[in-house]
Amino acid sequence: MTNFTKEQNQAINDYGKDILVSASAGSGKTTVLVERVLKRVLSGTPVSSLLIITFTKAAAREMKERIKQKISDQIEKEPNNQFLRSQLLDVDTANISTIDSFCLDVIRRFYYVIDLDPQFSVLTDETQAELLKERALHEIEIEYLEKNDQDFQDFYDNFSGDRDAEGARNLLLQLYNTVVTEPNYEKFLNNLPNSYQVQDDLIESDLWQTHIKPLLVKEIGDMQNEIKQLFENPQMENPDLVKVKENYDIFASRLEQLLNALKDNHSYNEIRANLMNCKFEKNIRKSKKWSEESLETYQESQKLKSDLNDQLKKIFANFFVVEEKEQVNILKKSEKIVKTIVDTEKKLIKRFGQLKREQNLIDYSDMEQFAFSILTTDTSNAHIAQEYYQEKFNEILIDEYQDVNALQENIIAAIKKKGQNNLFMVGDIKQSIYGFRQARPDLFLSKYHAYGQNDDSEKIILSDNFRSTKRVTKTVNSLFNPILTANFGGIDYKKEGQLQFGATYYPADLPTASEYIFTDKKQTQASFEENFGDKMDFSEIQMVIARIKQLKKENFQVWDRKTQLKRPLEYSDIAIITRTRSDNLQVMQEFAKADLPLFVTDAQNYFQTFELVMIMNYLRLIDNPQQDIPLVAVLRSPLFNFKEPELGQIRVKTRSGNFYNALTSFASVNSDLGQKCKNFLQQLESLRSFAATHRISELIWSIYERTHLLEIVTGLPNGQQRRVNLESLYERATSYESAGFKGLYQFISFIERMRKNQKDLAQPLLSDKADNAVKLMTIHASKGLEFPVVFVMGLGHKYQTRDLSGNFTISKDGLGLTIKEKDYRIDSLVKSLADVEKRQQMLEEEARILYVGLTRAQQKLILVASVSEMETKQKKWKSEIDPKTNILPLIRKINAQSPLDFLGPKLEQKHEFDQTIEDMTLALEEQDKIYYLKFAVQSDIEEKDEQKDDTQKLSSKMNDVVKTLYNFEYPFADATKTTAYQSVSEIKKVFNDPMDTELENSRLISSSNRYLQPIDETPVFLEKQKFTGAEIGTAMHLVLQYYDYQGDKTELNLEQEIEELVELGKLNPLMVPHLSKEALNWFVMSEFAAEFWQKPEKLHRESQFSSLMNASELFNDFSDSAAKILVHGTIDGYFETDKGLILFDYKTDFVDKTHEEQAIDKIKQKYTGQLRLYEQALNEISENKKVIGKYLILLDARKVVPVD
């Protein structure tokens, strides 16, 4: 007989109250649920009078099986109990299901209440649903455009790009997904414009008083607490730090003035002025004479100073970027657009519903909406359906309550017996990880904090963990004590959320030490990620493989609960858990090479498979061949087999222009390669003509036939699956056309939107060795599962915050818009507020996702991450946890960039990072083990191709780019869309010396499709491990950017400045020997910089700007065009004088001293265009003063050169 804990017995036996059970990971909640049902049945309650709601169908099946098993066990004890026998038969038809299945039952039983045809079918094909929704939206667009509705056009214009209206469409489609989970979606929509209602006095508005003001007061209060904690350090009273403390006192006083202005409701512009004045007076330098304690405290104060400045900058950028009048205008313009959005959304919902009804279909969102409507509809003065279910169910039991949405909550409330407390809810706020499905963890939290305060409700906490060893339990508690708090996650983990060790069945001699394997990610890899997306580091996978092999080799023992014996580790005992499935292909490839069995439980990303990337790129080319990325990818693919040297030859012959022009030019060459180019272009042109007169599905099949693509992929590994994937695309194209859609570009956009919205058509990739194979799955897929050994990988991956960087933000409370003005875009205050709130909600969910991953481990937990600049991060982590509370401050958590930002501070506080892996053994001790590895990558190996000719070098570089396309998740989708955005770093190449930029003008830009598109750039992570001239130049710029002109004018300052930049993590210490300190000292002590020392407040450095410029002024190609291009750039510096502005730009170009005058003239010619861009931008943004002088600072030549 199971020995239940006191709390479990309460959860099983307590009745007569609404009960909320907060059940931590591994606490046996399913066992408790089953036992509670059994108790009810044994007391004479029919199982048919219970409603049991589970989150998944699999959970419902498991629940039924476990209940049947329990009843069967009881029948063995009471063989003559006919009631139990009848209940055993009734379990299969009992209301034990997902909420969707229950809603479907409501609709089938009471369809007539809402006049629904009872012969309806459920629309289970998600693609078909999306197509119908697209069709509804398309019809609404036509309707508005035919009426020439100006408000609608203004709405679409505000979110449209250069070529399409995808921005507005995405908003409407995403808003749909939110509103259909609201119990009264019309009311929700009607309330959206209310947030924007404001009179001329912004401070008096509800938006300010109810939302923005409390947020700012809280943030500033948190900043004051940070300063208070610093002042509590006794070292701050040390005479060494007198000036540091004085500097903080002045800042704290200004912060207090800002807080008082907020609290006392000063005008918006007064508060804004206070904020702009809220800065540190001086930059205090440290002294080598100080004690070690003083220096340590000084570093702590400097880091806090940097954090406080960053926080104030965010507040300014979010809420004070323009003055009150402009803010009010933006809100009023936004309100008008939101009203149009509301009207359009209502029509979309109505038209989509009509299209479904015409085909007698309902989808999953209809199930819940219709069920709620049926349950709340008053028919002939009676709520027939509601009363039926209230009478039917004696108790409603809800599993995974933390993941219900607002509509589901209202459905449950509608069927709850009136005047009775018959709700039993089980969940764990720490495991609420379905925000993308509009889960509302705040509903759980509201009951968590309210229940138990009266006789009608009860809160029960199940904290005993029966899954994991004591070591794993301690590890999880240690890591999450500082993270989950009342103001971050809604629960004080240390007081109420800790796991209590309950798995006393484990023997004491098991190897259970948790491990943390951190590989040192090279800077080159970090740079690669910036260009190609945050991919899992190769070394992470290698270390996991090595550790698995080592565990097997050393006969690692696991405890088998079934046999109650120790046994050797099997592959099936191991799970590798990742945040996303985007790295599955890479992990699979490496495991195959290592000959280790792997079972992938998550579906592979369909649209990211090799064959789908290939065919989608070909379709993009047929739509528009002037796209370098898909063109090179298709040429390099097995369809056409262009080799790297061949692509190099093509580019070398025509170094300017895009690659399509180069290919066309080479097709005229009388050679085998020229004929190969000609054949490709002929087929491409033939397909383009075919596309103009045929359906998309016919075009796709024609490509298959002409290129023999189906036969090619069938011959590849996993060929049958690849063939099915291609055939599936053909079928999707047929469905797309059947829904009434036309146009290749629109089809490509539709597929891209499905990919972005995770509407993937993936199929599981199975292994023949699934019975004894390592499991690879996402954290979401692992929820509810457990494994003896768990690897959690990818902890250094950056969090994705794309949802916060777009032109709209949808939250449970409203809709925030970015408004397009004549020359710029600006976030409305509503959007800024929504972004701040949603970012914290997103990071809270990420912390919970991390908790779910770590709590899957039974016996051994191994955390794996690749980390760039490890030593810098260690210094950062060391001081982040508040020593008094042992909590990670909120300001740190809301600025977290990756899981390691949550975990690292605690790890650094408790452990030292070892430098080798030699002592990685089967440690039996309780202490966790941390391994810090410096891992060799390809860039460390000496390259031997320096003598290659131009063609060989070029083809090698191109091959690297193409390999990136096919070996990693395809990172270039956005580059196929035209954008009118340019950075000066790209535009200035147009002004460079032509001989320097023949190849530059065709380089690929991975993040967006700019005017310049390079294709021959070597990915940075494949270059030699040495600093390039550009990298050294960037570091020189960095020193001059932060150089402090407020102290004494002495050359000794430079060493201190460099040292501080290294300590703050802004400058790589390995870079220091490469800096030209002579050149740096020359400039800061020069006559040109003399005024900087006299009036440092007039010096502006690293000034960013965005300016709308005529394309014809920038590019010859646009000489006859009126096109506008938004130029974004950063000006090295300018200095305000009484007469005007002095603009200057640092250059580290080599100057040949033997021909100095000619060399300087050449450099001057090279950068004149760039400085003119800066001058134009500066003149536009400066209200009173204009540029009166432009200068190049040539650091190598030690010259200041005026530019006309």
TrEMBL record:
ATP binds at A23, S24, A25, G26, S27, G28, K29, T30. Its cofactor is Mg(2+). GO terms for cellular component: cytosol; DNA helicase complex. GO terms for biological process: double-strand break repair via homologous recombination. Residues 496-784 form the UvrD-like helicase C-terminal domain. Residues 2-469 form the UvrD-like helicase ATP-binding domain. It holds the Pfam family UvrD-helicase. One of its GO terms (molecular function) is 3'-5' exonuclease activity. Transmembrane segments: none annotated. It catalyses: ATP + H2O = ADP + phosphate + H(+); Couples ATP hydrolysis with the unwinding of duplex DNA by translocating in the 3'-5' direction. Belongs to the helicase family. AddA subfamily. Heterodimer of AddA and AddB/RexB. The heterodimer acts as both an ATP-dependent DNA helicase and an ATP-dependent, dual-direction single-stranded exonuclease. Recognizes the chi site generating a DNA molecule suitable for the initiation of homologous recombination. The AddA nuclease domain is required for chi fragment generation; this subunit has the helicase and 3' -> 5' nuclease activities. PANTHER family: ATP-DEPENDENT HELICASE_NUCLEASE SUBUNIT A, UVRD / RECB / PCRA DNA HELICASE FAMILY MEMBER. This is ATP-dependent helicase/nuclease subunit A.
